[in-house]
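Dear Dr. H.,

I hope your travels went smoothly. While you were away I took the liberty of generating a structure for the chain from your last submission, since the lab meeting agenda had it listed for discussion. I wanted you to have the full record in hand beforehand rather than looking at slides cold. The sequence, exactly as received, is reproduced here:
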Amino acid sequence: MKPLDALIEAARANPQRIALAEGEDPRVVEAAIRAVREGLARPILIGRADRIRNEVERQCGDLTAFTIEDPAVSPRQERYAACYEELRRHKGMSRPAAVAAMSNPLNYAAMMVRHGDADGTIGGAVATTADTVRAALQIIGPAPESRIVSSFFLMMFCEPHHAKKGAFVFADCGLVVEPNAAELADIATASAQSYRALTGQEPKVALLSFSTSGSAKHERVSKVVEATRLARASDPSLAIDGELQFDAAFVEAVNAVKAPGSMTGGAANVMVFPNLEAANIGYKIAQRIGGAKAIGPILQGLAKPANDLSRGCTPDDVYHMIAVTSLQASRQKQAQEKSELHRAEAV
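The corresponding predicted structure, in token form, is as follows:
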């Protein structure tokens, strides 16, 4: 089974409520219809109710399977506005301004997740990444144990021409511009956890550079070396190597020559780039020249799932992000239940 199909099947096993902040957009509606039809998730379409109903009826003619939330007339509006006012009080937020903010579907969707009225949210088909991420950071917020919120792309190499097939994580391609060594280490460990949660496979992490095992000396190389040290100290069980050039991380024969004794052996599946510039260029080369399917940017380090789309996304892109977000929510709930059980047993 292709890794993308396996991910979709895993999401389908426990469908979650996903708030789609741009519920009026035809691409989003098309993806939501498919998600309902295939039992992938329980989408919540957010926006002006009349426009959403018209679009759903135009595409499939059946409104009964969809939850529609219109922030302008929602009975949740007052409760959400009060919460937002409290969250942003330190920034001088007033109640009228909070009410106005909750009329924004991105904010409303994030607040649904914060209050447990949805399990995850997706935006960015119309809104910018900055607006989408801002809503998630301000309203959902970081997870208690998280020191940094970062992002990654899930890269699917599934085509016949791909010499090596499978799911790969490329991080951070969309959020943290110039991470320091500690932040890069946190991105590496978070990306490993995300890979494990979404694929069910063990991560092998490569911290990438223009140097392999000391072949070059530069402060940028030193940052990657220190990040690798910190990541190993944070999670000694993790298979992680750095600093590695991409070929040493990806090709076993090259790894054997350049980095003998490597923990990943040239079979890394989590690629951590030294900065946003390199990561963004890298994933787009893999996507546009290499033909990989790129799903993202997927956020990690938040208290609950919230993800971004490209404004040039297709209905397929939205559908795949629904699958990812639903699976993130399901895995997070499982982890929380397991943690609570362990605490109960320890009492």
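Two observations you may find useful: Residues 315-346 form the longest helix (32 residues). The mean pLDDT is 92.

With kind regards,
E. W.
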